[in-house]
Protein: Crotonobetainyl-CoA:carnitine CoA-transferase CaiB-like acyl-CoA transferase
Amino acid sequence: MKQLSSDPAPTPLDGVRVLESSSSQACRLAGMLLADLGADVVRTVGSSERDLADPQTLGWDRGKRFAGVGSSAEAARLAESAHVVLDDGTGLYSAAAGTANPRLVRVQLPPYGVVGRESDLPADPLLLSALSGFASVHPSYDPGTPIASVVSVLAGIHGAFGAVAAVAGLIEATETGRGRTLVTTGLDAGAAALSTLVMTGIDVDVVLSPGGRPDSRPSFRVYRCADGEYLHLAALTAEFFLPALDVLGRVDVMVMPGVDGEFMNVNRPEIAATVSPELERTFATRPRDEWVAALTAAGVPCAPVQSRVEWTMSDFVASAAPPVTREHPDLGEVVQPGTPFWFTDATVRPGALPTRSRFLRATDVWRDPAPVPASERGTSEPRRLPLDGLRVLDASTFLAGPTVGALMSDLGASVAKVESPSGDPYAVYAPSYASVNYGKTIGALDQRTPAGRASMVELLTDADVLIDNLRPSVARRLGLDRESVAAVNDRLIKVSVSGYGPDGPHAETPAFDPVLQSLSGMARAQGGSGEPVTAVAPILDVCTGALAAAAALAAVFSTTTRRRGEHTGSSLAAAASYVQLAELTVFPGCPAPEDGDRDYRGPQPWRRYHRASDGWIAVAAQTPDQVSALASATAAVSLTHDGVAVAVAQQPVEQWIGELSRAGVPVCRVTPAGGLLEDPLLIANGFSHVVRIPDLGRFRLARGYFTDLGVDSADRTARVWRLAAEAFDAAGTRHPGYGVIAEAE
Structure:
C-alpha cells in the first residue's frame, strides 16, 4: 500500500485537469478527492476568498490551486483547457457555460434538488438533512422529531458521488472523444443514505420508516457498562446475536415471550421494549473493556465508544487513513486525516494545504489546450451511459461492498454478483438487500468444487473489475487475492472494501457502520454530554462504497494508458475520518468542533430545527443580517432556543416559510419520516423508484446516486453480462433478479 511514499509511481489521475466552480462543502470535497487521486484541481475564487487559511476548509481545499476569475469569459477559457468541470451552482461563475470543448465532462452537484422552490436555497447541511428526511430518521427520544447531525455526513457522501461521476465521465471521454453532463444532487445523497431503511410495499403490505429511540434495537445499539463507559453492540444478524447472548449469559432472551426463538422478532418495537432493559442490566454488571474483549473473542462485532482524540491516536487510523502533518505559514503545524483511498501500485497522497501562495491569476493557469489521453480501447461509438461495456464481478456481501457495484451499474456497467451457495447474509432483509443489488445479474458459484472454481476463473478472465469485502485470509483461500487474480487477468482492477484497511493489526477484523461511528468519535460528538448516539442510517457504508468506487474507476481510467491491473480500495475507518475531515483537522488554537446533546436540534437558535404549529421548520441564518431578519420576523422575546421556539410554535409551517423567505432567511420544512416516499418535492426530484423482489412483489425504495446521466430513464435498464448469466444458469443458481420496473402506479 502506497500513500505517502516518495516512489515515483504515477498517480491514477496523473495529467487530468479539473476546474472547480463552487462554494459548497460537497463540491469542494469532490474536488479534494480528485486532487488526492492526482488530478490538477483549480478552484475559481473571487476577491472575498483570497484568505485561504480558513480553518474549517483546510481539508476541503487541500491539493488545489486557486484562480481569481473576474468574468465568465475567463471561466470559459479555463474550461476549454480542462478535462472536468465541477459546478454546484453556488460558485462565482458556471465555468462550463459557453465552452465548445467536446471532451469536457461537466459534473453538476446542486446542494438540494434540481426542481422545487428549495433548489435556490444556499447550501447548508442542516437544510439538506431536513428536506431529505434524514433528520427525521435519526434516532430520537422523542420519536418522529428531527435531529441535527453534528457531522455533515450527507455532504461527504454527495462529494464522493461527484468524484465517482467525474471519473466515470473521464473514462467515457477518453474512449469515445465525447464528454457529457452528469448530475448528482444533495437529495441523491440523502436517498442513498436512507435507501435500506425507507420503503413501502406495493404488492404486499409493508411500510418501513425507521427512526425511533436510540435504544429501540437491542441487537444493534449503545450500552452503558459498569464503569460508566459505553460500547456499541453491532449484532446485525442471528449469526452474531446468538454468540453475543452466549457471552452475556443471556441465551434465555431467545425464549422470552414474543421472541419465541426467532431473531427477527428481537427488534420488533413491542418486543424490543422488553428485551433492551434486560440486556442493559446485564451490560451494567461488568466494565466496558471486559465486555469488548469477550465479545470480540467470540467474533461479535462491537466497539468501545471513543472520543475523536482517542480515534486519531489509535492504531485503527494508522492502518486505514494515517493522519498527515504539515506546516502552514500562518497556522503552524496542521494535522489532518490522510487520503481515504489506498493503491498497491499507484501513488495517492493528500495534497498541499491551501495557502495564499497557491492563488494565481486566471491567465497563469493552463495556457495550453487540455492534453488528450490515449486509449488503446478507444472508439468513436456513442454510449448510452458512461460505463457501458465495463464488466464488473461483485463478490461482496452486506452493504458497503455492494454499493460499489450499485454505483457502477447505475452508470452503465454490467455487474454480476456472485455469492456463495448460502447466499449473502444481508438478503434476510430483502428490500434493503434489493436497494443495492437491483440491476445486477445475481447467482451462486461453489468455489469449493472444480466446476465452481472453473466458472469463477472464466469470469475473472473476462472481467474488468472485481469487487470484494473479504478478509485477506479468506480472499487467499478462495483464490481472490491480488496475486491469484493477477495470474488469471493481469489487467483486472481489484477493489477491496474493508473495516480497517488492507493490512495492519485489524485487517482480519469484521466491522459494521455503527462500530466505526462509535470508534471514530462520531457517536460521542452526536450525544455531547449525554448518551452517545449513532445514526441508524448506514452513512459510513454508503460513503465507503462511493469512495471505493471512485478509487476503482480511477484505476480503470489509468489502465486505458498504462495496461496494468491494480489493487485499490477504501474502508469504513477511512470513511469515518473523511466525513469528519474538518472536525479532525487540528492546529494550535483551532476552535473546538461542534458537539451535540440529547435530542440535538442545532447549534444556535438561528440555525436549528423549530416546531411550528403543524410540523417542523429548519432555519439556517448564515449572516448577521439574516439573524437580525429572523429576530424581526419572529418577534421573539429573546434570541435564545426557547425564545425563538415559543414564537415559531404559534404559526404553521407554510406561513413561516413565506414570511422568513421574504425576509431573506434561509428556511425550509422538515420532511417527516412517515410518507417520505410520497412527498411531492422528493417525487419531483426522482427520490425513489420501484423494484420487483422475487417471491415478494414490487417495492418502492429510495434511490440515490445520480439524477441525470443525459439519457432517458428507459436507457438506464440493467445490462446483463452474458457470460456470467450463462455460468449461473449452468450451475442452476441464477437469481431471478431485482429489475427496475416502470414507475407508473
Remarks:
- The chain has 26 helices and 26 strands.
- The CA atoms of residues 461 and 489 lie 5 Å apart.
